[in-house]
Amino acid sequence: MIKFDRFKLGNGLTVLFHKDVTTPMAVVNVLYNVGARDESPEKTGFAHLFEHLMFGGSINIPEFDKPLQQAGGENNAFTSNDITNYYDVLPRQNIETALWLESDRMLSLAFTPKSLEVQRSVVIEEFKQRYLNQPYGDVWLELRPLAYKTHPYNWATIGKEISHIENATMEDVRAFYDKYYNPNNAILCIAGNFELENIKSLAEKWFDDIPSGAEVNRALPVEEKQSEFREKTIERNVPGNAFYYAFKMPDRLHKDYFISDVISDILGRDKSSRLFKILKKEKGLVSEINCYITGSLDPGLLIITGKLNDGISFEALDRHLWDLLSHFKEDQIAKIELDRIMIKIRTSREFQEVGLLNRAMKLSIYELLGNADMINEEDKHYQEITPDMINRVCNEVLVKENCSLLKVKAINNG
Amino acid sequence: MDRSQQPTYKAVESIRFVKPEEHKVGGHFSLYHLKEVPNETCRIDLYFDAGKCFGHRGIPSFVNGLLLSGTAQMSSHEIEEAINSRGGFFSSGVSLENATVTIHCLREKAVELVEIVAKAIQDVSFIEKEVNEYLADQKQKYLIGLEKVGFLAQKMFQEKMFSSEAMYCETIQLEDFANISINDLKKFHQEKYRNGLTKLAIVGNLSNSDLDAILGIVKPMISNDQVDYATKIQNEAGLFYVPKENALQSAIRMGVQLFNKQHEDYLDFLVLNTILGDYFGSRLMRNIREDKGYTYGIGSAVVELSKTGYFVIGTEVGKDVREAALSEIKKEIKLLQDQPVTDHEIELVQNYMLGQLLKSADGPYAMMDLFLSANINGMNLNVYNNAIDKVKNITPARIQELTNKYLNWNDLSIISVG
Fold first, then answer.
1. Cβ-based contacts under 8 A for chains A and B
2. Domain containing A370 — which CATH number?
3. Which chain A residues are Cβ-neighbours of B417 within 8 angstroms?
4. How far apart are CA B386 and CA B15, in angstroms?
5. pLDDT tens digits along B247-303
6. CATH code for the structural domain at B21-221
């Protein structure tokens, strides 16, 4: 049971407090309800570029990192298709430094041209390092537009192309900030060995005077239900053929979300999973194979991916894979197999909850979804899953008309 | 309230380091145990003297990767099934000098899992089909690696950094995958794993009878030998550049032989390392990322071995700015040699390092890792109390002295690929 308190400031900022008396560290986590899905299709990669700019100085503080390091802390941030999340970890006696820094950049940024210019090139190098200069690095740039036709999940957080980042202007930056970086569009979570009263007064002291912004009405284009199998082959100078089968699956709040997660575990979590056992060990078709879900808030993807062994064709793999999936859809899963999945889920959840930062992040995400207390219901959702439920969801998700297939064909340029 | 003023803050004064309980068996082997874990989790690390420096042609890596590939009694699949059905997570790894096997699990399953894993390791029979399959998979991963500038630079770095030590500078070559014989694997396994267990580290709320049971299980694997590690390395200094067609970035790795925590200059050098390249506000990050925008990241580190160590700087930069980046790195080192660091920068780094050390000791898992890092160099937790003192008392003159003493551009092996 992860306990927490919640209160709201007058400007709409939601504050969560999670007490942990065992640690000398404190965590300040700030989640902004904005991600790559909120970008315009002509200006993609912006939420992520913006995350970099949040470290370029705020209205009253020239540099973000220095004072935090001075207080013995460190910080980082990440951007996903759904959210942008910032966190600071520091010795508990210095928590006020983190609140001072986070509140000032929520109040206003410095918006210096130098910061924009430098972060544009840093992000371009990140684009190259992670997506372009790695074998298979660009698959998500290809797979997303194949799987999503209207929903903005059809581009990656880094953006569709480098030019979108090159063309970002200061005007764009300001407008994005004004729209999304407001207290009423954020969740602050503080974790550590403190008293609630103390946290309340600190939160009020630093955040209460930040004006709220206009409500963001998110009206994202809804992805229509996929009704045809899609397939694309790209040729790349890579050492081996790779495949990505992407199936649409329910959104994060849907009752079938956790069932889809379990299905992905049954298929490809570890070396006891069906894909590994049958397609790799028994049939020798692949050198590696995995199944996982993207975990996104709007309807996401269940991905089956792997690399073909030398001399094995895409067609052979395809035939055996669909064969395996159709058996999975027809037969009921045995209790022993389901038990195995459940104990692994339990083990990994226990490990995730060891870390203070993980707890703070997860509370924030659940609060965004509606109620941080859902963190304590997760286990129940998993435990309630039955073989019948798995069969039903399999038959909805693992069907050909719901699938997009990306093949990466190896060509040798020498 | 003045928002331009930082709230008052205090540097970390002291840190509580928790010593794991030690259970000795024989002359060289110990089990270390940290019991205070707030939930049901448990981690078990087994250490073997089976690092890369003990074998040729990738054999130490291959044997480590094949530990669960099956025995006369159980196939690899049955072993995986036995581990997974108990909710266990198995991982293994091999470094230059050591090999490890790690189990993450719920504490109620710990004893059973150790039994399964220990038996699988003791009795692994290197079944031909499994070995061939594994080598084919590894070869594919290796071929992917050859397409990455970071992988290529790292490989060459190892060759140049350890050029004086034949067993340390050897890296895996493409032809090794075809030339491995099962007998070579068996021989290495027999020598280094069957009787090669040197240490066991357990974090988890286990009872004494659980610990006794675990000790009983691993007892036949305990090593009686002491092995020799390199006490000194000599890198091959110079500039080495390998172009790679179609690369968008160049990977840079540079380094020079140094020392580990046993050396009197080590703790002070760590402060220098932090200033130069080991935190987000480091000289290298501020210049090469935050001012020039040449890279997504650049960092430096002191890498410790059992008896020695080395210093390394690593980054990936735009291909067109490779030379500019190299000259900026050179400039930053020179600056530290020529000009004393300001008191303000020293204070910032002191506070940052103490805060990070506090974090490194936070919770049983972090604490065990911190302990093991000292233990591997034959030291105890006192080294961290010394670190607090050293960090608090560092001076600008000392930083300058150490930069001049240890970081001379002409002594470095400087690799760039791409």
1. 197
2. 3.30.830.10
3. none
4. 11
5. 889 999 999 999 999 999 999 999 999 999 999 999 999 999 989 989 989 999 999
6. 3.30.830.10
Select the residue of B10, B76, B88 nearest A94 (Cβ to Cβ): B10
CA angle A130, A134, A138 (to 5 degrees): 70
Closest CA to A265 of A370, A132, A393, A129: A393
Rounded Cα–Cα distance for residues A360 and A30 (Å): 9
How many CB atoms within 10 Å of residue B207?
A: 11
CA B68 to chain centre: 23
A363 is in which domain, residue-wise?
Answer: 230-410
Among B residues 178-217, those touching chain A with beta carbons less than 8 Å apart: none
Q: Which of residues 265-304 of B touch A (CB under 8 A)?
A: 279-281, 289-296
Fold of B238-417: Cytochrome Bc1 Complex; Chain A, domain 1 (3.30.830)
For B15-47, the pLDDT digits (tens) are 999 999 999 998 889 999 999 998 999 999 999
Q: Which of B263, B272, B222 is nearest to B379 (CA)?
A: B263
Count the Cβ atoms, other than its own, within 10 Å of residue A129: 23
Cβ contacts (< 8 Å) between B7 and chain A: which residues?
94, 96-97, 99-100
Burial (0-12, 13-18, 19+ Cβ within 10 Å), B59: buried
CB B121 within 8 A of CB B67: yes
Token pair for A394: 């399999």
> For chain A, how far is it from start to end, CA to CA, in angstroms?
57
Cβ pair B21, B189 in contact under 8 A: no
**Contact flag B351-A240 (C-beta cutoff 8 Å):** no
User: Does A221 map to a domain?
Assistant: no
How does strand A403-410 pair with strand A242-249? Answer: antiparallel
B359 touches chain A (CB under 8 A): yes
Task: For CA atoms B371, B374, B378, B380, give the dihedral sign.
Answer: negative
Write out chain B residues lying below 8 Å of A121, CB-based. Answer: 293-294
List, for residues A119-150, the tens digit of each pLDDT value.
998 899 889 888 988 889 999 999 999 999 99
**CB within 8 Å: A310 and B7:** no
Residue of B nearest to A205 (CA): B1
Contact residues on chain A for B85, CB-CB shorter than 8 A: 272, 336, 339-340, 343
Rounded Cα gap, residues B62 and B185, in angstroms: 8
Residue B24, burial from CB neighbour count under 10 angstroms (0-12, 13-18, 19+): exposed
Residues A118, B147: C-beta atoms closer than 8 Å: no
Is the ipTM beyond the 0.95 threshold?
no
Q: Is the dihedral of CA A386, A392, A398, A403 positive or negative?
A: negative
In a domain, A216, yes or no: no
Only one residue has tokens 């190892």, namely B158
Whether residue A220 lies inside any domain: the answer is no
Q: Which residue of A has its CA nearest to B141?
A: A239
Alpha-carbon distances, residue A302 vs A205, A263, B133 (angstroms): 44, 9, 27
Going from N- to C-terminal start, the domains of chain B cover: 21-221, 238-417
B54 contact partners, CB below 8 Å, separation of at least 6: B60, B167, B188, B192, B227
